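Q: Convert this sequence to structure tokens.
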Amino acid sequence: QVQLVESGGGLVQPGGSLRLSCAASGFTFSSYWMYWLRQAPGKGLEWVASIDHGDSNTYVADSVKGRFTISRDNAKNTLYLQMNSLKSEDTAVYYCINLDEGYWGQGTQVTVSS
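A:
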């Protein structure tokens, strides 16, 4: 069956870094664009980053530009989000998504706090 399993979240101080991973299975990972979205406490879903199936085109939201990098390893069926210079406003649950098929991971909590 289809699975998207995020990991790598946690508690980090402002200015710190985290690397999120999303392990995909049950579908042909290399054929799809993949996305990271997040949901902060009491707020709606926010698109964070996208990457094409071949890892040649990436896009990030203005709110994270210059700090977050999306990448993928199709040989490992894994999506990544490198997050640097984290701010308190980055606190959210982060989701890995195959938008075309409507597949979502369970989410991983990122908390940025001193």
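Residues 51 and 58 are 4 Å apart (CA to CA).
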